[in-house]
Amino acid sequence: MPPSQLPDGAPLPQDGALPASVREGLAGRQFGAYVHIPFCRVRCGYCDFNTYTATELGSVSQESYPDAVLKEIALADRVLGDAGHDSALSTVFFGGGTPTLLPAAALVDVLARLREIFGIVEGAEVSLEANPDSVDADYLRELKDGGVTRVSFGMQSAVPHVLATLDRTHDPARVPDVVQAAKDAGLEVSVDLIYGTPGESLEDWRASLKQAISMAPNHISAYALIIEPGTAIARQIRRGEIAEVDDDLQAEMYELADRLLAEAGYEWYELSNWSKGGAHPSRHNLAYWHDTDWWGFGPGAHSHVNGVRFWNVKHPAAYANRLNGGETPAAGHEVLSSEERHEEIVLLRTRLRDGLPTATLAANARERVAELIADGLVDAGAAFRGRIIPTLRGRLLADVIARTLTEDPQ
């Protein structure tokens, strides 16, 4: 089992009914769907996601898995209908795991059912994660024809020894080919990078950035490697087989990424995300950061509906068994207080280029903005215009901004 743990929470009724509080103000809220595909050929050494290789699946097969997701879609239709939900889907995101280990037709069938049950607004973003070695031109065209609009490739690095440390199995030379094939199919393209891998130099990272930029994707994500307890790479560090992550070097790598991406015409819109010309952000991820609603389908998937957060059991077998028995797969839920929702909004919106309206802050928090400006963490001009937007230094210390604006003064 992967090391990630579900949060504590109260159980939902067996039929999945949400608390009555969800109904107040639910109508018209933006709504998205996340579909978790939990399969991987090999688990990467850094990965803490809810993923499984073939030997860990028990009675669940990749072939039967979409049927379980379709059952949860039917359950969500009933639960949300009872709650008075009336919004069509603005975004759909297939993540994992490796969604592209399933046939394209299976993913398209799930998307078609979501469209049939909930509706999908015109111009919606339908995005899918892919490993570079798990797709070809025909597969990508089938996705496009089935309604997918965007594909996000897990490139991670262009440097073989960095990929080896991460246990990534794809050939970096293949990435430009699949990016071009996705473009030829008419899909928007994002590439995901990871920086700060033990043994990765600043020049290694520069090489990865330059290759990513040379492919001219619509969007580039760059995430600092975080060592999660219980992962293979954490055990390697503990045994002294590889070096620990260097926080100072990671900061240099972030600054290099921001500079090179800006020079190439990419604008940051969230701490770890840049879009070409500012025109191609991930609308699904922006919806998370703007406190909208989504239903997460699949084992271990999390959902949020108007202040109620709930999450599914982790193992695909347990997930399928509950749905086959007519029960909700939800393992627990929590109803967020107004204070908790406010803290989350501050945490998330201060990560964004469009920032947090100062007016949403309590009076004592607004008084601390001057301190953040003095420390070089918040843009002074934006603050005077009524928005909290992090500077480059502030992006590196985003947690300090959020903590300063939410903690009670001592």
UniProtKB/TrEMBL annotation:
Chief location bin: cytoplasm
Coiled-coil ranges from the UniProt annotation: none
Superkingdom assignment: Bacteria
Database matches in InterPro entries: Aldolase_TIM, Coproporphyrinogen-III_oxidase, Elp3/MiaA/NifB-like_rSAM, HemW-like, rSAM, rSAM_sf
Short name of any one Pfam family annotated for the protein: Radical_SAM
CDD domains referenced in this protein's UniProt entry, alphabetically: Radical_SAM
Domain Radical SAM core: 25-267
Subcellular location: Cytoplasm
Swiss-Prot/TrEMBL keywords: 4Fe-4S, Chaperone, Cytoplasm, Heme, Iron, Iron-sulfur, Metal-binding, S-adenosyl-L-methionine
Record function comment: Probably acts as a heme chaperone, transferring heme to an unknown acceptor. Binds one molecule of heme per monomer, possibly covalently. Binds 1 [4Fe-4S] cluster. The cluster is coordinated with 3 cysteines and an exchangeable S-adenosyl-L-methionine.
Family according to the record: Belongs to the anaerobic coproporphyrinogen-III oxidase family. HemW subfamily.
Protein name, as recorded: Heme chaperone HemW
Organism whose genome encodes this protein: Gulosibacter molinativorax
